[in-house]
Amino acid sequence: MNRRQKKRMKLKVCRWLVVCSAVGLIALVACSSGDGSVSDEADMPPELPEVTATAELEPATTAEPTTATPEPSATPDPPSTNENVRNYARAHSYLNRGDYVQAERQFSVVIEIEPQFARGWEGRASALMAQGKPAKAISDLDRAIQLKPDLASAYAGRAVASMSVGDILGANQDAVQARILDPSDPNSVIVLGRILSGAGRAADALEMFNEGVELAPDEGPAYWWRGRFLFQIGSYDLALGDFSLAIEYSPVSAEPYLDRATLYMDVFQDFALARADIEEAHSLGEEPRDRDILDESDALLERLEQLIADAASS
Prior knowledge:
Elements: H1 3-31, H2 48-68, H3 77-97, H4 100-113, H5 118-130, H6 134-147, H7 152-164, H8 168-181, H9 186-198, H10 202-215, H11 220-232, H12 236-249, H13 255-268, H14 271-286, H15 291-313
């Protein structure tokens, strides 16, 4: 055997040994009990990724139901609830600004999201009442009371609405119930004052109206209702003072302007001040549009022009 043949033979033997040692190492890894004796000598990665991949698949499979489980739960509820709080605040903002149509729409959104929220129904009833829709308001207040039977303001609101549709008995019952639940609610007291006034009990009515003002000293409607009562019984100076306070505390409400204009026209003969109040009321009735206010202010303005003409010709 020459030198070249010997060299070839050595190379074959070397290759065979490498293969055998590799096969033996793999066999050891496969048969190893995992005591760590092989890992120190061999860093060969063929088998290790398989073991690692198998270990990683198990947690991944179990993790899927864990992340999927919260999905049907109330995870999205907190954002929608928070958003509905903003909807409710926005609705009251419209109500306070005198934009009663937008207030009604916004309260409807609140109710749609949370139909069990009694104050949402009560709020929409207030917007409906302000638009001259007492029957619809009563329906919403019925729902509010059904959801929250101890909601005094809903009884008081329904008493006001019942007065508007001529249900004096129902108004009286609701006003009494509201006063039992919350003696500090001014609306129930004012309703009782109106009922007593209609029954000819002026002294008792005045007592109720005075109490209403005491309970709500910074709310325009309390002064407005007392002013109307005082106007009715002929206390004109006191009525004028109450109308002015009602306008001061509720400048976006058109009714006190119209009542004060009537007082200026019919009692004090101050046509310039009457015209200013009528024009202001008409402006408030235009945005948002209130047909009743516009019609009433137009009728008052026409009567004012006639009074001015009569005064000029006499």
